């Protein structure tokens, strides 16, 4: 789905805007940005927003401790390794990597990336050179990436690894990304759940964005059910200490890679979980406008509380003995917070983290703060009370249009709801019209093992030379490969799309399973030399006149 690029059309009032993104940009520039600048919001919280922040495709941030399987998960989702990625038991990823779509493959280093006005990363400049040396964008053609971008991150160090300084504020960078992405996927290792200090600090940085946070309890097939329950409990308890709303956190349990499950014990659970997760990812583009609106409202509320805090501190400063007063004010900040909350009827949730704010305030000269400017605050109140509401009809309209779109396609998401591997839609599969390969002279790669596969095929008692989807599924599931992979194999093997496998299609499926078990990737489309001989056709000028070619 093409992302909508909204040009700055010189909109003068809210009535003129045609899209939600355009409206949000207009409101931001008119009513929020002046306030942010006036009260030095970016010195305390996050840099100001730019047009690219409202236009970009949905983004997913993948975070987690070292070796929890972040890069593996991304490869699984894309069905493709990204250029330069490394996977291994030792800490491997040391860069923040934005994985994006482009027709040509390439890498853009951080310093150049923050110069590009069309990418939403310009403000990362703020985190300095050490960070930029650890930031890059890799781009290549991939169907999933046509509708979303993914951010791979360096592993959060676990307690046993010696803590080394990163040279940049890792939690602050995470927080910046958390603010700008649509979904945060936090991976944890069910097999080795030891949560470190850096983990707690990083999770704290995600506070306020819990609505985007999903936890993946990965490698869950490596432990038995009883241990899994214990790990799940321990995880929720640890997260509960750092995140205020652990009960609403969605945890997906499974093993998110294309290798077979270690045991079949919880297979059905893992499969359902993965299906739910993939559905959520698939729907990201549909919910993108609403998410951007939500984020702007959240930001506006924080800006409002910031304005009250800063102007309060300014007004409290005396002419003399300022240092003492500043110290007292910082010490009293919790009390000041609640006084402002009561006086202006602002909910505590709109306020920044108090300890963080105290730390930041130390480095500021309070006399330089600005006092209250009622006009600016009134504009902001108007934004929150009436302007956003005016965008609602546009939002509904966009949601209706988006609901018609298929959502994210490609990679493992390609075959969602297809083949006999998902409930509710057991055999439906519309054949790939006109995708028959042209007749080639190439031999069928599967031929040499066909007798071996035939034996299994006939043992499964096919009817009229074909194996039903249910029977084929039972057999394919016994390989313990995840359903998402088997579903892809099904799609590739059921060449004529009749929801059944004949002997050749079965041999092809078995061949692909072996390929997968040996650790190779699946082709996105069946290559010519894999198409079963009886399914090979010659392309003629008239489609009706397709002539079946005899077996070689
Ligand atoms: N679902 C899984 N089940 C079992 N092992 C897995 C799973 N996913 C990944 N692994 C293994 O875990 C190790 C770490 O994987 P990977 O490099 O993807 O993790 P990472 O989180 O990206 O690590 P880093 O933080 O170092 O970048 C690899 O050896 C990989 O093969
Ligand atoms: Ca990695």
Concise synopsis of the structure shown:
The protein has helices spanning 20-38, 41-44, 51-55, 70-78, 110-113, 128-132, 143-147, 170-180, 197-205, 225-242, 267-282, 284-316, 322-331, 333-344, 354-361, 374-390, 392-404, 450-459, 469-477, 483-493, 503-517, and strands spanning 59-64, 96-101, 106-109, 135-140, 149-152, 183-189, 213-218, 250-253, 466-468, 500-502, 537-538, 547-548. It is an alpha/beta fold. Helix 18 (450-459) packs across helix 21 (503-517).
Helix share, percent: 40-55%
Listed once per kind, the bound small molecules are: adenosine-5'-triphosphate, calcium ion
Low-confidence stretches: 1-7, 415-439, 539-552
Give a quick account of the main beta sheet: strands, pairing sense, barrel closure.
Answer: 8 strands, mixed
Number of separate domains = 3
Count the E strands. Answer: 12
Task: From the alpha carbons, calculate the radius of gyration and give it in angstroms.
Answer: 28 Å
- What is the CATH C-level name of the largest domain? Alpha Beta
CATH architecture of the largest domain: 3-Layer(aba) Sandwich
CATH-defined fold name of the largest domain: Rossmann fold
Numbering strands along the chain, what is their spatial order in the largest sheet?
3-4-2-5-1-6-7-8
- Beta fraction: 5-15%
* Cα separation of the termini: 41 Å
Number of helices: 21
The average pLDDT is: 83
Shape: elongated
> At the fourth CATH level, what is the homologous superfamily of the largest domain?
P-loop containing nucleotide triphosphate hydrolases
Helix-strand category: alpha/beta
Subcellular location: Cell membrane; Endosome membrane
Domain Dynamin-type G: 54-285
Domain EH: 449-537
GO molecular function, one term: GTP binding
């Amino acid at each position: 789905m093409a992302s909508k690029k909204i040009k700055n059309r010189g909109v003068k009032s809210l009535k003129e805007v045609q899209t939600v993104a355009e409206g949000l940009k207009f409101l931001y520039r008119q009513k929020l940005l002046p306030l942010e600048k006036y009260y030095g919001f970016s010195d305390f919280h996050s840099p100001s927003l730019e047009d690219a922040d409202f236009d970009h495709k949905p983004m997913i941030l993948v975070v987690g401790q070292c070796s929890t399987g972040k890069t593996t998960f991304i490869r699984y989702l894309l069905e493709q390794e990204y250029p330069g990625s490394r996977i291994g038991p030792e800490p491997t990823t040391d860069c923040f990597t934005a994985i994006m779509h482009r027709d040509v493959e390439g890498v853009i280093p951080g310093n150049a990336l923050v110069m590009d006005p069309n990418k939403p990363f310009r403000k990362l400049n703020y985190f300095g050179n050490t960070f930029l040396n650890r930031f890059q964008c890799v781009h290549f053609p991939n169907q999933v990436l046509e509708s979303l971008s993914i951010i791979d991150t360096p592993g959060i160090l676990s307690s046993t690894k010696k803590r080394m300084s990163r040279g940049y504020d890792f939690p602050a960078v995470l927080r910046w990304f958390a603010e700008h992405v649509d979904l945060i996927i936090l991976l944890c290792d069910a097999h080795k759940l030891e949560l470190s200090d850096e983990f707690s600090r990083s999770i704290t940085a995600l506070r306020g964005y819990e609505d985007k946070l999903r936890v993946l309890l990965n490698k869950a097939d490596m432990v038995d059910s009883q241990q899994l329950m214990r790990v799940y409990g321990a995880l929720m308890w640890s997260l509960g200490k750092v995140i205020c709303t652990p009960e609403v956190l969605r945890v997906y349990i499974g093993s998110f890679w294309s290798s077979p499950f270690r045991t079949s014990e919880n297979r059905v659970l893992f499969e359902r979980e993965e299906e739910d997760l993939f559905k959520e990812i698939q729907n990201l583009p549909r919910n993108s406008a609403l998410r951007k609106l939500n984020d702007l409202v959240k930001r506006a509320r924080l800006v409002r509380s910031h304005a009250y805090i800063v102007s309060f501190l300014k007004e409290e400063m005396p002419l003399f003995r300022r240092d003492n007063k500043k110290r007292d004010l910082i010490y009293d900040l919790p009390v000041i917070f609640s006084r402002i909350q009561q006086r202006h009827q602002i909910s505590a949730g709109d306020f920044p983290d108090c300890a963080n704010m105290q730390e930041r305030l130390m480095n500021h000269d309070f006399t330089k703060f600005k006092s209250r400017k009622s006009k600016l605050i009134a504009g902001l109140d108007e934004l929150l009370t009436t302007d956003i509401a005016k965008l609602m009809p546009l939002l509904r309209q966009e949601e209706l249009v988006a609901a018609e779109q298929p959502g994210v396609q490609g990679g493992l998401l390609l075959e969602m709801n297809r083949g006999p591997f998902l409930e509710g839609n057991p055999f439906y599969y519309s054949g790939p019209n006109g995708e028959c390969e042209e007749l080639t002279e190439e031999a069928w790669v599967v031929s040499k093992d066909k007798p071996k596969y035939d034996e299994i095929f006939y043992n499964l008692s096919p009817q009229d030379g074909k194996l039903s989807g249910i029977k084929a599924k039972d057999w394919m599931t016994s390989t313990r490969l995840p359903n998402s992979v088997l579903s892809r194999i099904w799609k590739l093997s059921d060449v004529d799309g009749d929801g059944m496998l004949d002997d050749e299609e079965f041999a092809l499926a078995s061949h692909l399973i072996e390929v997968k078990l040996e650790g190779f990737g699946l082709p996105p489309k069946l290559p010519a030399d894999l198409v079963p001989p009886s399914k090979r056709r010659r392309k003629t000028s008239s489609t009706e006149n397709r002539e079946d070619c005899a077996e070689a």
